[in-house]
């Protein structure tokens, strides 16, 4: 039984595709610290969208942004000083706990 060159080429191409590793890669599962940080980042964004920035100092926001930029890994040094900052910090602790993290996960601490 003879095969045409075009059918042989088609079969060869099909076999090459099946044997070649897939180009599309599955997304790597996130680690638990990455999941916690993503959830916390979303809660922070939602809280700011809801309440705004009134009463929040530049230092408070910058230190919190540094925490998020680190992937939520640096030791917390975001000290709420105003009533608005304390209210937001309390909201974030509750949001973090609702997201499955410990109450110690958020970066709020006043060290001296």
In round numbers, the mean pLDDT is 83
Order of helices and strands: HHHH
Helical/strand content category? mainly alpha
List low-pLDDT spans: 9-23
**Main pleated-sheet profile:** none
Quaternary status of these chains? single chain
Radius of gyration: 25 Å
Please provide a written account of the structure.
- The chain is mostly helical and 112 residues long.
- Helices cover 56% and strands 0% of the residues.
- The chain has 4 helices and no strands.
- The chain has helices spanning 5-19, 32-51, 58-69, 83-98.
- Helix 2 (32-51) crosses helix 4 (83-98).
- The chain is globular.
- The chain starts with a helix and ends in a 14-residue tail after the last helix.
Could you give a short description of this structure?
It contains 4 helices and no strands. The chain has 112 residues and is mostly helical.
Annotate the secondary structure layout:
Blueprint: H1 5-19, H2 32-51, H3 58-69, H4 83-98
Helix pairs in contact: 2-4
Give a quick set of tags describing it.
single chain; 112 residues; mainly alpha; 0% strand; globular
């Amino acid at each position: 039984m003879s095969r045409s060159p075009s059918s042989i080429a088609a079969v060869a191409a099909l076999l090459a595709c099946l044997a070649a590793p897939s180009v599309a890669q599955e997304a790597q599962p996130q680690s638990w610290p990455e999941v916690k940080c993503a959830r916390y980042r979303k809660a922070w964004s939602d809280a700011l969208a809801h309440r705004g920035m009134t009463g929040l100092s530049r230092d408070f926001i910058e230190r919190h942004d540094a925490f998020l930029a680190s992937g939520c890994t640096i030791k917390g040094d975001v000290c709420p000083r105003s009533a608005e900052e304390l209210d937001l910090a309390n909201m974030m602790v509750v949001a973090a706990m609702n997201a499955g993290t410990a109450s110690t996960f958020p970066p709020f601490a006043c060290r001296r």
